[in-house]
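Q: Predict the bound structure with iron/sulfur cluster.
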Amino acid sequence: MSHSASTRVQEFIGDPFADESLLPQEKLEEIFTDIQSDMRFDHELNGCLNCGICTATCPAAHYYDFSPREIVQLLWTENLDGIYDAMQEKIWACAQCYTCAARCPFGNSPGGLIMIMRETAIKHGMESAKNVLRPFSRVMLKLISTGNQLSPDMINPEHFADWGPNISKVDAPLKLLRKAIPMPTLNTTETAWEVNLKTSVELYTIWEETGVLDQLETVDENLFDVILDIMDEKREDWEDWQDEQDDDD
Ligand code: SF4
Ligand code: SF4
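A: Predicted complex:
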């Protein structure tokens, strides 16, 4: 049977009879090699009975079209197309709770393997990674600029419009609540707590050296540029502070 002329349906959902992969074979192999060569891989995957205990205990599997057993099987059988396909959506359903790792009779960590696949998706700049991480860009910006992941001021419908209707239920007197917490550093709603300049600068070095910032550049170049500016500013502030101390001595 010939399938050379594609129908409108095939254009949207693909041709189930087509032999071609979603990506060239070399690219699929490159992605799998990156996953497999991660130093955690051999520790997280020892074999797989296909028993499904991981899926039976997985909270995400109850709510999504997602099965850790399926992901582990794809990796164990080196199903390159299936691995790539799972990286488009399914791997992002995992809640990283590691219940699966505690239950697997083989000592596998499906959650750990999924973490490696996610990092690989980021490294390859996959669209799925960009889409999933986009809503977290303001959290990342807050983390880099203040050393805090989330401040009370951010918990409002404006910041989290895309996080569903529940965020609009947060209508607490934040300033009053903050004052009620008897620590002077918490008398603010702009930061969760104060992080000193030296710690911030040290964190930048860690993020640079461990490749976190390279990953950020791959998934969100604009945010990467903004964050570089913030880091430069903070480093200058830190140097100025050190110079001031030297002058005082
Ligand atoms: S770590 Fe992920 S795959 Fe494992 S049980 Fe939790 S949600 Fe499921
Ligand atoms: S990963 Fe472990 S629990 Fe899950 S199907 Fe394989 S052997 Fe069973």
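A: Confidence is low (pLDDT under 50) at residues 1-16.
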